[in-house]
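ingest -> validate -> predict -> emit
validate: passed (alphabet ok, no gaps, 165 aa)
predict: started
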Amino acid sequence: AKPQENASGRLEELEKKLTEVNGNYLRALADTENVRSRMQRDIAAANSFAIQKFAKDLLNIADILGMALKSVPEEKMEGNEDLKQLYKGVQLTDKELRNTFGRFGVITFEPQIGSKFDPNFHQAMYEAPVNTQEPGMVIGVSKAGYMLKDRVLRAAEVGVSKAAT
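emit:
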């Protein structure tokens, strides 16, 4: 009976070892799968936001084109064909830049006057007491904000109301 007990004990020992090895294998497999999916997410994020620095550098160009377009009064263009053509060229350049932004997921947003100040999307450039607004409301927009997909590329630069003293 002793050899049978010995064989039975050895079998139990081998079954425990097999269960342990199988558990280790399944954990290693799960870890490998987690690393693979994490790497896929990281690669997708890197691809989505690879243009972030380049796009951010172009925002000032968009601002300058916008200021150039706003600086030319319509009455000055009447009878001045050269100025009208220059204006049209700047306008087309601005439009093409904004279309390119759109193709790459860069979106302009401009807060509404009277909306609540949100530090996630707005940068307060100044505060002013306003009797007609409650404190913490947008009272002016200096520069539009931009987003790259779901990230803020540049917060909108705004003025914010404060309590009148």
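The longest helix spans residues 2-48.
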